[in-house]
Specification:
- A hairpin with a 4-residue loop joins β1 and β2.
- About 5% of the residues have low confidence.
- The protein starts with a helix and ends in a 9-residue tail after the last helix.
- The chain is α+β, with helices and mostly antiparallel strands and about 260 residues long.
- It is about 45% helix and about 25% strand.
- The chain has a domain of about 150 residues.
- The protein is rod-shaped and about 165 Å long.
- The strands form 3 sheets. A 5-stranded antiparallel β-sheet has the order 4-2-1-8-7.
Length: about 260
């Protein structure tokens, strides 16, 4: 089907833009674009698609026609368009559909409000929909720019790498968060146990000082008792000597004077 059978493009000179409008009630979905457009939600249907009239680029559009037929198409915009003059407005004549080159192979896969782009780089498929290729690149506009030649293969591969990193981060982040919370609990528990241990150490050190003081007193007491014991031994020996002399005097063995 020819593009002009699916939609028409009119020029809005005042706003310096073109407006793409589906014919006969055809609905259009913007899948990707290399230029700025008025569409924010790529899954939403629109009857009019506007884009600047001074910028060349590429639009990846899926048109839903009668009987739920789908028509994926690449529309190259190269302003200013050739104009035809119908009865009530200026319409832009659309050339034939744009086709990707062999050195940058790719295509649009059209489904009901769920279309996506795929490109091939070094034998690997990069898709703007998850699970539809070797690598997922959520930025369909980037793949569109690659097909059109305004983005490099390295940019596409880097986007796929960053997406993979983000996916792994989403998977690993809860695990890391859980481990951090567990470590935090261990730290808090360790702080509590450490505080209790410090109290115990302080108490033991206090008891040690008390025991050392008691031991010192016991040593002093023991030394005093030893001195008293030696004194008692000397007195006992002296008493035994005097008793012996006294006994000798009594029985007349020796004569001596015993002084009290």
């Amino acid at each position: 089907m020819k593009l002009d059978e699916l939609f028409v493009v009119s020029e809005n000179k005042e706003k310096k833009m073109y407006e793409l409008i589906g014919r006969k009630g055809n609905l259009t979905y913007l899948v990707a674009a290399t230029v700025k457009t008025n569409i924010l939600n790529r899954t939403a249907v629109t009857r009019a698609l506007s884009f600047p009239n001074a910028e060349a680029g590429l639009l990846a559009i899926m048109v839903r026609g009668e009987h739920e037929k789908h028509y994926p198409c690449f529309v190259e915009i190269k302003g200013p368009f050739r104009l035809q003059i119908p009865k009530d407005n200026y319409f832009v004549e659309i050339d034939k559909q744009w086709i990707p080159s062999l050195d940058r192979p790719g295509q649009m896969v059209a489904n009901y409000n769920d279309s996506y782009l795929i490109v091939e780089i070094e034998g690997k498929i990069f898709a703007s929909k998850e699970g539809k290729g070797n690598f997922f690149v959520p930025d369909a506009d980037l793949l569109c720019r690659y097909l059109y030649g305004t983005a490099t293969a390295d940019e596409v591969k880097e986007a796929a790498r960053l997406q993979k990193v983000e996916e792994l981060a989403r998977i690993e982040l809860p695990k890391i968060q859980s481990q951090l919370e567990y470590n935090q609990r261990l730290v808090e528990q360790g702080i509590e146990e450490g505080a209790g241990l410090r109290l115990l150490i302080n108490r033991l050190e206090t008891e040690k000082v008390v025991l050392e003081t008691k031991n010192k007193k016991l040593e002093e007491t023991d030394a005093q008792l030893k001195e008293e014991n030696e004194s008692l031994k000397q007195e006992s020996a002296q008493f035994k000597g005097w008793s012996f002399l006294w006994a000798c005097k009594k029985i007349g063995i020796v004569k001596c004077d015993i002084k009290k």
